[in-house]
Amino acid sequence: MLRKVSESLGISSLGLPRTRSLNETFSAPSSPRKSQTFSTQKYGVSYTLDRYLTNEGHRLVATYFHLNQTQKHIQKGAFHQITEKDLDELIKSYNGVTTRAFITLNHQHLCLTLAECKLLARLLKYDVITNVHTLNISRNRLSGSSIKVILEALQKNTTVTFLDLSSNSISDNESKWVGHLLKKNNSIKELSLAFNKIGSECARRISKALKINITLKRLSLESNRLNAQGGLYMSEMLKVNRTLKYIHLGGNNLQFAGIQGIVEALRVNESLISLSLDANNIAIGGSKILADALTINKTLTHLYIPRNNIGDEGLKYLCQALLLNTSITYLDVEFNNIGVHGNTEGSSVLGKLLENHVVPRAINLSHNPIGSSGCEALFVGFHKNKTLESMVLSSCGIGLEGINSIAEALKLNQGLQSLSLYKNNEIGADGHLALAKALEQNTNLKKIQLDYNFDDWGAVGHLIQRYLTRNLFLQQEKYNVACQILKAARIMLNTPVYRTTAANKSNPLTVSRRSRSIRSNISSRSIVSISPFIVSFMYLPFEIQERILISIDTNQVLTDHQEIMILNWSMRKDTLGKNREEFLTKTFGAYHPLTSDVRLWPTEFSEKDFLVCDRF
Q: Which intervals of the chain form a coiled coil (predicted)?
C-alpha cells in the first residue's frame, strides 16, 4: 500500500518512520491551537484530504516534505539547517539508487564552519549514491581541520572529477592532506588550488604525489607562494608525469632558477599541452631559455606568458624558436613592454613569422605600446598568412597609419577570423572607414572589436556589421557545400576505373589535369547494392561525372583547388572515418569553427572571464 501511495506522489523511495500528521504539517504557526485541515477545491466544492489518507499516509507526506527540504538545503550549501540524522535519512530514502540531485555542488563564498564541512564530508562518503561530479568550495577561507575532513573524505571518493579549492587559506600546514588526496584519489581530473598560501613544502608534496598519480589532467597553482624552490619541485614532477596536460603556475615568483627548472622539464615532457607562467618576471634571460626549449618540445600548444617584461628582445627569441616549432597554436604575450620607445624589432620579427609560418593560430599582443610603426612592421606580409585565426591588439596605441596597414593586409588575407582593436583611441573616423572598405573585399573576417569613438559612427558601424554577417553566412555555405560534394563523391566515384569511354582511351590528352590527379588515388572497389541511377552514372566519362558533382556548388563559393582536394579526399581509403574538422582542414587549408568563438586560453578562462577582460 505504501509503495503505491509513494509512486502516486512521485516519490522514488520514502520507507522511513513517519511521525507527523498531514494536519500538523500544514498547521498555521500563528494559531497553534487551531489546526488547519489541508484541502483542495474542485468544481466549487471543498474536499478535506484527511478523509482520504490514513495515519500512515499522513506520515508519508510529511516525511516527503522533510526530506525534500533537506535536499534543497544541501544543494544551496545551507548545512547549518540540517543534522547528521537528516542527512542519513535522506541517503537511506534513496534505497541505494544513484541520484542526480547533487551532480554539481557550488558552495563558494559561504564561509563554511567545521561542523558544516563535516556534513559535506559525510555526503561525499556516500559517493555511489550522491554521485557528485563537480565540487566548488572556493572562497570559504578553509584551513586546518575544516579542509582536512573534506580532503580525507575525497581520498576514497570515486565520482568527483572537478574540485575547486581556490581562494581559501590552504598553506604548507595542510600540505600533508593535499598530498594524500592526490596519491589515493583516482577520479579527480581537474584541481584548482589557485589563490591560496601554498609554499615550497606543499609544492614538494604535490610534486611527489603527481609522480604516481595517473588521473589528474589539469592543475592550477596560480597566485601562491611557490618561489624558486617550488618551481624546481614542479619541474621534477613534469619530467616524470605523463598524464598532466594543463598547469597554471602564474604569479608564484618562480624567479630565474624556477623558470630554468620548468624549461628543463619541457625538453623531456611529452604530455603537457598548456603552460601558464604569467607574472613571474621571466624577462629577456628567461625568454631565451624558454625559446630554446620550444625548439625541442613538440607537444605544447598553449603558452601564456603575460606580465613578464620580455620586451622586443624576448619576443625575437620566441619567434626564432617558433620557426622550428609547429605545435604552438596559442601565444599570449600581453603586458610585456613590446614596442617601448618606438622599438619595432619585435613586431618586425613576428610579422616575418606570420608571413612564412603556420603557427601560432591565435596571438594576444594587447597592452603593449606597439603603436602605428610597430603595426606597419607587423602587417607588412600578413596578406600571405592563411592560418592565424585570432589577433588581439587592444590598448596598443595604434593610430590611423597603423590601421591603414591593417586594412591593406585584410584585403588579401584569407585566414583571420577575429580581430580586436579595442581601446585604440587614435583610430578615429577615417580609420574605421578604412576598415569598412577593406571588409568589402575580405570574405573571411567574422568578428571585429572596435570603439566607434567618433560622431556619426552609426553608418560605418552598420556597414562593418553587414560585411561580417555576409562573411559568416558565406563561410557556412562553403562548409555545407564541401560536405555535400563529399557525400555524393563518396558514393558515385568509389567504383572501378575501367568505365572510361573509348574516346578518352584513344586520346589520353583529353583527360584533364584534374582528372589525372583524382584517378591516381582510385583503387579497385567492388560494387555492392548500387541503385540503377548510380550504375548509369558510373559509365559516364569521368569529366562529366566531375562536372555533375561540382554543379552542387550552385553559387560557386569554392575555388577549383578546393574542389580538387574534396574529390581527391573522397576517393582515398585512408580518409574513411576522419571527422569533419580533419576534412575541412585538409581541403580548405584551415578549419574555423562556426559554432564557437575563437578563444585565447580556452583551458584557463570561462566565457565570463573573456567578457570581463579584453580578450575574445
A: none
CA 161 – CA 159 distance, rounded (Å): 6
Residue 267, helix vs strand vs coil: helix
Number of continuous H segments (helices) and E segments (strands) in the chain:
25, 15
3-state secondary structure of 571: coil
Helix locations, 296-379, DSSP H: 311-322, 345-356, 371-378
- Would you place residue 548 in the very low, low, confident or very high pLDDT band (cuts 50, 70, 90)? confident
Whether this model's pTM surpasses 0.85: no
Question: Which cell numbers in the block locate residue 411?
Answer: 584585403
**DSSP assignment string, 340-358:** GGG--HHHHHHHHHHHH--
Q: Number of C-alpha atoms within 13 angstroms, CB side, residue 585? A: 10
pLDDT single digits (tens) 137-194: 999 999 999 999 999 999 999 999 999 999 999 999 999 999 999 999 999 999 999 9
The cell for 83 is 543534522
The answer to whether 419 and 379 are in contact (CB under 8 A) is no
pLDDT value at position 122?
96
Phi, psi of 392 (to 5 degrees): -110, 120
Q: How many CB atoms lie within 10 A of CB 264?
A: 17
Whether the CB-CB separation of 246 and 216 falls below 8 Å is answered with no
Q: Which residue has the cell 601554498?
A: 198
pLDDT band at 616 (very low <50, low <70, confident <90, very high): very low
Q: State pLDDT tens for residues 565-597.
A: 998 999 888 998 899 989 998 998 888 877 544
| Neighbouring C-beta atoms of residue 325, cutoff 10 Å | 20
| Domains of the chain, residue spans | 2-69, 473-588
On the 0-12 / 13-18 / 19+ scale of CB atoms within 10 A, 130 is buried
What sign does the CA torsion over 276, 282, 284, 290 have? negative
Count of Cβ atoms closer than 10 Å to residue 299 Cβ: 12
pLDDT in tens, 289-320: 999 999 999 999 999 999 999 999 999 999 99
- Amino acid, res. 606: S
Q: Compute CA distances 56 → 19, 23, 90, 95, 129, whole Å.
A: 9, 13, 19, 19, 27
Q: Please state, in angstroms and as integers, the Cα–Cα distance from residue 496 to each residue in 271, 513, 536, following that order.
A: 44, 19, 13
Cα–Cα dist 426/371, whole Å? 10
DSSP tag of 562 = H
The number of residues in the chain equals 616
Element (H, E) at 305: none
Contact between 344 and 313 under an 8 Å Cβ cutoff? The reply is no
The contacts found for 287-291 with CB under 8 angstroms, 24 or more apart, are 287/313, 287/314, 287/315, 287/317, 287/318, 288/314, 288/317, 289/259, 289/260, 289/263, 290/259, 290/263, 290/266, 290/317, 290/318, 291/317, 291/318, 291/320, 291/321
